[in-house]
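Blinded run. Sample ID left blank on purpose so nobody reads anything into the name before looking at the predicted structure. Input follows.
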Amino acid sequence: MSTPQQRSLVVKCTAGAEEAERCSQAFTVAATALAAGAPVSLWLTGEAAWFGLPGRAEGFVLAQSPPLADLRDAVLAAGTITVCTQCAARRGIGEGDLIGGVRLAGSATFVDECLRPGAQALVY
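Blinded prediction complete.
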């Protein structure tokens, strides 16, 4: 008897504080999926790359939304957070600048995660 493949979620956040609602939605969906038991990988690209650094999520405020730092920490506790290598380089962000547990990786890793059996990808 076979068991169904566990579905995973890959969330790509392409917006930072300049598009606060879209950014918050990505973090909220990632944390909610983890709470529902799904494996989650959250990718921070473009201006969202800044949220891989200490103190950046703590300064993000959006009315009627959970604190971004709390959502980030929930994802870090049970899932993975990745900052895009090229996005980081364009912003002068190095691996040593990132919060512990946040990794740098590129498009090949993103594509690999998205193509795994049972994976679902969302872009915000």
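Unblinding after everyone has recorded impressions. Strands lie at 8-13, 40-44, 80-84, 102-105, 119-123.
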